[in-house]
Design brief:
Layout lengths: L2 H14 L19 H5 L25 H5 L6 E3 L2 E2 L2 H13 L2 H13 L3 H4 L4 E4 L4 H7 L3 H13 L3 E3 L1 E2 L11 H7 L4 E2 L7 E9 L3 H12 L4 E9 L6
Parallel strand pairs: 1-8, 2-8, 3-4, 3-7, 7-8
Antiparallel strand pairs: 5-6
Helix pairs in contact: 4-5, 5-8, 9-10
Protein name: ComF family protein
Pfam family, one: DZR_2
Family: Belongs to the ComF/GntX family.
Length: 238
């Protein structure tokens, strides 16, 4: 579906279904875009590794995963509230490939709902994971930038634009090490960053993209870097 057509459909849905849950279409008593049952039933990423956001078994709650203990990522912490599954996967696909503002708005609401007050006040700047200009022109939509602009306005902090220097090959089918090599020196931040920054993306798969961007941010002056994304792809789905 084209960007214009997707926007028309989303506008029609907002007008046609006011006060309805975005997932089950049940009537809503309040202003939240979802009902309590659907919200509770979403694939929450709990528990998750505090370092990389990787889903963890219940016994590992509150602990860092073995991979982070062996080789800590370049970012200090990951905040990824959902798993890329079920309704969330459908929202991400409509947002990313159909440029659906309705899906994007829901994903942004889900992310901010799970950001604690101290997390929201923490970053001095946000940095969106950038697309290469050629890919952005082909797709006509940059989902990480869309999320980052709106999140920066909500948090009242600046958005810094990073640059993707190389149009790296697709990451599909690559292992963690291969993805890191694929993204080596792929990003550049053309500004001096403040001490605390949060990177923003829609989905984390292995974390290699965020790792490469975090290294670029540290070269640009950031001392503390967090990685924020809406969803994390479970290991068995990669």
């Amino acid at each position: 579906m084209s960007t214009g057509r997707a926007g028309q459909v989303d506008g029609w849905l907002r007008r046609a279904l006011p006060g309805r849950c975005a997932f089950c279409l049940a009537a809503l008593p309040g202003e939240a875009p979802w009902c309590a049952a659907c919200f509770a039933g979403l694939p929450w990423n709990l528990p998750a590794c505090d370092g990389c956001g990787e889903p963890q078994p219940p016994a590992q709650a509150g602990l860092r995963c073995g991979r982070c203990l062996r080789r800590p990522p370049a970012f200090d912490r990951a905040r990824v509230p959902l798993r890329y599954a079920a309704e969330v996967a459908g929202l991400v696909q409509r947002f990313k490939f159909d440029a659906s503002p309705r899906a994007g708005s829901l994903l942004l609401e889900l992310l901010t709902t799970r950001l604690s007050a101290d997390a929201g006040a923490w970053p001095e700047a946000l940095v969106a994971v950038p697309l290469h200009p050629r890919r952005a022109r082909e797709r006509g939509f940059d989902q990480a930038l869309w999320l980052s602009r709106r999140l920066a306005r909500r948090l009242g902090c600046p958005l810094v634009r990073a640059q993707r220097l190389r149009d790296t090959p697709s990451q599909r089918g690559l292992g963690r090490g291969e993805r890191r090599r694929n993204l080596r020196a792929a990003f550049f931040v053309p500004a001096t960053l403040p001490g605390r920054v949060a990177l923003v993306d829609d989905v984390v798969t292995t974390g290699a993209t965020l790792e490469a961007l975090a290294l670029a941010c540290r070269r640009a002056g950031a001392r503390e870097v967090e990685a924020w994304a809406v969803a994390r792809t479970p290991l068995h789905d990669r």
